[in-house]
Amino acid sequence: MSITFDKVEHVYGKGTSFEKMALKNVSFHIRDGEFIGIIGHTGSGKSTLIQHMNGLLKCTGGNIYYDGKDISDREYDRKTLRQNVGIVFQYPEHQLFEATVGKDVAFGPGNLGLPDLQADLRTYEALKSVGIDDSLLDVSPFDLSGGQKRRVAIAGVLAMKPKVLILDEPAAGLDPVGRRDILEMIARIRREENITVVLVSHSMEDVAEYVDRIMVMNDGALAMDGTVEEVFARKEELEEMGLSVPQITLLMQDLKDDGLIDETGIYTMDEAVRILSQRLLKR
Amino acid sequence: MVRFENVTFEYIRRDEEGNVDSITTALDDLSLHIKKGEFVAILGSNGSGKSTLARHINALLKPTEGKVLVAGYDTSNDKDTLEIRQRAGMVFQNPDNQIIAETVEEDVAFGPENMGMPVDEMQKRVDEAMKRVGLYKKRLESPNRLSGGQKQKVAIAGILAMKPECIIFDEPTAMLDPAGRRMIVETAHELNKKDGITIILITHNMEETVGADRIIVMEKGRIALEGTPRQVFSKGDRLKELGMELPAMTELAQRVGLDGCILTREEFVEAYKKAIR
Ligand SMILES: Nc1ncnc2c1ncn2[C@@H]1O[C@H](COP(=O)(O)OP(=O)(O)O)[C@@H](O)[C@H]1O
Ligand SMILES: Nc1ncnc2c1ncn2[C@@H]1O[C@H](COP(=O)(O)OP(=O)(O)O)[C@@H](O)[C@H]1O
Ligand SMILES: [Mg+2]
Ligand SMILES: [Mg+2]
User: Fold this and answer.
1) Which of A92, A184, A216, B269 is most exposed by smallest CB count within 10 Å?
2) By CA distance, what is A181's nearest residue in B?
3) Nearest CA-CA partner of A56 in A24, A23, A73, A79
4) Which of B211, B274, B250, B125 is nearest to A269 (CA)?
5) CA–CA distance, B41 with B251 (Å, rounded to integer)
6) B182: Cβ–Cβ under 8 A, 6 or more apart, which residues?
């Protein structure tokens, strides 16, 4: 599904003393199957933005289109929109509530009115996809480890078979192995299911490694929108916004400033290893 | 400053009838000594016992077996709990859950107020604490309007107003943006260097630990690995077994075959210059 935001605005608490313009004039177009990263300082509007993507929040100005159709039209089927666009919120494991892992994942499909057999099938598939073993189906989610709980919560969203998967800081609070596993899993699901993925992250490293395109939010506005190369080339501006560039990029810039390498625009560990090993072998 | 003597802690879960349902041993015969003025970073996979350890230091939890001493006070003696909490403050992961008041100033004053301190003394301490973290200008603003990093600084100021000897940070940067992360780690180092406050920093971010005096890596309620950052990060294989990784500079240096255990960008540039010469 393609997503178009046209001059979208969102004001919280309009007319009250708490009035806050959380989205200002945000316009972009996401093509079917893209892998998008969203970065931005705390309070820049990332969570507000993604809640507009499945109609949980209504914009107070502008328009949002899915596959060219305005989702605010009276005839628009917003129930289907919520099935098609799955959001994994921050710390989603806090929202697990059923007595068993299986029931928790089956909750969404059950609500769609699917026959039990089909809901079960989706539950199995989703759990398999996030790497949770069948043997845990009847276990209470509260007896799982932090990383496992998060996977179960993600499975609950996947069981709805979304065409667009949005994740708000899915790796926050996980240990290094847990973080890598979750991100690899998301990348694999995207490849296998061929879906659009939107990843909100505070890690410049993770964004550089996984996504194709980065959108930068700053004070409610879309400040940058481009490829990893285009966005991370604007280091000073990013720093002014409370963001940064990957560690590796800073190092490669230091090496270039000292005249030790010629390359610029290196954003990942693997690229840096390739360039520096060549140089070191030649000597 | 902080001493754990053969500490075991069990979380005991009971069913509705009060019968024991399950027991988790979160600390397992753990001994540890943290000196006054030390900066200790604690790593370890999720569930390895880091938060349980942290909560023992300000007497939120008491050992099932063994003893925890903080500034000479035994945390098992309930009468000393306030003395301990005044000396050892804790900053948690979620900045939003720690905000309680309408203005920054009131929030920072919450702890000293509860200690029953004279008003003049309290105001002085609150002002000093807000200045110390650079929030004095924002003292009349609502904490909710601040950035994530600034909210964490409000929590830190609230502890500083109690004149603590030790601050325990339990994943304080997990929810922050890059500027917020840097702000908090720098503040922790500054409080350690300039004010001599003992710092215990729990984190999943390897970069945040390279400036520590000592790193402790936990596994299943025990200390699995311990040493200076250079000692710990030269044991890459063991760290991977423990679910950790290397700081980016250390990993890159190893992968391109630079000698020594490199921790920072400056060290990397130096080592690289030497290698190509
Ligand atoms: N429910 C709400 N009511 C009022 N203001 C809100 C609400 N949710 C968010 N805000 C405000 O809107 C702005 C953007 O918030 P958010 O979208 O959560 O940012 P981010 O996810 O980038 O941290 C912030 O200033 C925040 O305080
Ligand atoms: N309130 C609790 N009740 C029962 N078990 C708990 C509780 N808090 C933590 N645990 C368990 O204790 C162990 C250590 O947890 P914790 O100290 O939170 O680890 P960490 O902070 O390293 O992630 C884990 O197995 C965890 O599941
Ligand atoms: Mg958010
Ligand atoms: Mg913890």
Assistant:
1) A184
2) B243
3) A79
4) B250
5) 19
6) none
pLDDT tens profile B116-170: 888 899 999 999 999 999 999 999 999 988 888 899 999 999 999 999 999 999 9
- Which residues are paired to B225 by β-bridges? B217
Q: Which residues are close to ligand 4, an ion, with C-beta < 5 A? A: B 50-51
Q: Quote the strand ranges of chain A, DSSP E.
A: 3-12, 20-30, 35-40, 61-66, 69-70, 85-88, 164-168, 196-200, 213-218, 221-227
What tokens appear for A89 in the block? 């919120």
B23 and chain A in contact, CB less than 8 A: no
Express each pLDDT in A133-151 by its tens digit.
989 999 999 888 888 899 9
Q: Is B236 on the interface with A (CB under 8 A)?
A: no
Both tokens assigned to B164: 């603590």
**Domain formed by A3-238, architecture:** 3-Layer(aba) Sandwich (3.40)
Q: Cβ–Cβ contacts within 10 Å for residue B25, how many?
A: 16
Both tokens of A203, joined, read 């890690």
Neighbouring C-beta atoms of residue B100, cutoff 10 Å: 11
Contact A13, A20 (CB under 8 A): yes
Domains of chain B (ranges, CATH numbers): 2-236 (3.40.50.300), 247-277 (no CATH)
Q: Cα(B23) to centroid of ligand 2, in Å?
A: 11
C-alpha distance from B90 to closest chain A C-alpha (Å): 18
Q: Are B70 and B181 in contact (CB under 8 A)?
A: no
d(CA A262, CA A279): 11
Residue of B nearest to A282 (CA): B276
The pTM is what? 0.93
Identify the sign of the CA torsion A103, A104, A105, A107: positive
Residue A44 beta carbon below 6 angstroms from any ligand 1 atom: yes
Among residues B224, B168, B208, B210, the alpha carbon closest in space to that of B52 is found at B168
Q: What stretch(es) of chain A map to CATH 3.40.50.300?
A: 3-238
Q: Tokens 């753990």 map to which residue?
A: B30
